[in-house]
Amino acid sequence: MELTDRIGRVHRSLHISVMDKCDLRCTYCMPEDATFLRREKLMTRAEIATIAGIFVERYGVNKLRVTGGEPLLRPDVVEVIRDLSALPVKLGLTTNALTLHKHIDALWEAGLRSVNISLDTLNSERFRSIARREGLDTVWANIRLALLRGLRVKVNMVVMRGVNDDEVLRFVELTREHPVHVRFIEFMPFAGNKWGRERVFTFAEMLGHIGSVHSYEKLTDDPNSTAKSYRVPGWPGTFAVISTVTEPFCGSCDRLRLTAEGRMRNCLFARAETDLLTPLRAGADIIPLIEANVLAKHPMLGGLPPFRPESQEEVLHDLSIRPMVSIGG
Ligand code: SAM
Ligand code: SF4
Prior knowledge:
With 329 residues, the chain is an alpha/beta fold. It has a domain at 13-156 and 251-326: Aldolase class I (TIM Barrel, Alpha-Beta Barrel), CATH 3.20.20.70. The protein has ten helices and twelve strands. The protein has helices at residues 45-59, 77-85, 100-109, 124-131, 136-148, 168-177, 203-211, 277-281, 287-295, 324-327; strands spanning 13-17, 63-67, 90-95, 114-118, 152-159, 181-186, 217-218, 228-231, 238-242, 255-258, 263-265, 274-275. It has a twelve-stranded mixed beta sheet. Strand 3, helix 3 (100-109) and strand 4 (114-118) form a beta-alpha-beta unit. Helix 1 runs parallel beside helix 2 (77-85) and helix 2 packs parallel to helix 3 (100-109). S-adenosylmethionine is lined by residues 22, 28-29, 67-68, 70, 94-96, 118, 156, 158, 185, 187-188, 190, 193, 324-325, 329.
């Protein structure tokens, strides 16, 4: 059986947040006044495995991504990865990589082969002002370490006008120097992140800027990919743009999300959630809840109006009910 929504999209990908806290406090992701869950509210290792097992075995979900908050802050993250890598799925981890060196051997041994690492700047001072703490050297060293150990590495850069848009070409250069896949992400609106249309450095601007210096070629994307991929011919790495704001890809979206406290979300921008964990703990059947959640998925952007930067319509700043740190990207 498949998880099909009311416009016929089949959902095969689940992002699981395993930790709501983080050791960075990126301005675009975590509000100054963020609050965190008590430990007993988080899904346990066994609960994560049970819920993920239902999505995979019953509904044919074949991609799992472990995320957060910062997943590596979870003491049993290696065991969680081991449980999930035993399922017939493509498994990934999204991390800020601040402590990756401590876990990399154990994660590899547990079955992890692919990692998305967030890095928005190669300038230490700027890193401090975006992430509100030091860390560039460690993160960069851990990107190199991950490559050295043979992990597939994607680098996620959130591009914000006037903050780090002048580093796009430098990040493209990384694909000349290393076999990494750099993903430029348009700045998205979430609760408490002071989003504004004027701060979105758009997909078109990124490609225009890159194209003024390099001749790049388009690569074939997976049918459900959120990213449009490119490469400079002859370079070992590739790059992509995720254009959620100016060119949403909702029509082919196959992603579902589970928050660290076991609430299911059918869209990053969903305003409704389904608590799976409380019923699971009470011994109830969560199958009808999962199916109802998928059926309620809106065709676009969780039912929000398009938030194109050039739109004349006024849009609210906080278009989401949650900050990204507690949704899981
Ligand atoms: N802590 C991990 C990390 O930073 O990779 C995992 C969680 S983080 C919420 C997941 C991804 O969401 C990161 O790549 C981050 O850059 C991205 N993200 C967070 N806030 C965003 C925003 N407002 N717009 C676009 N991407 C965002
Ligand atoms: Fe933490 Fe990742 Fe959000 Fe930065 S983007 S605050 S590292 S969860």
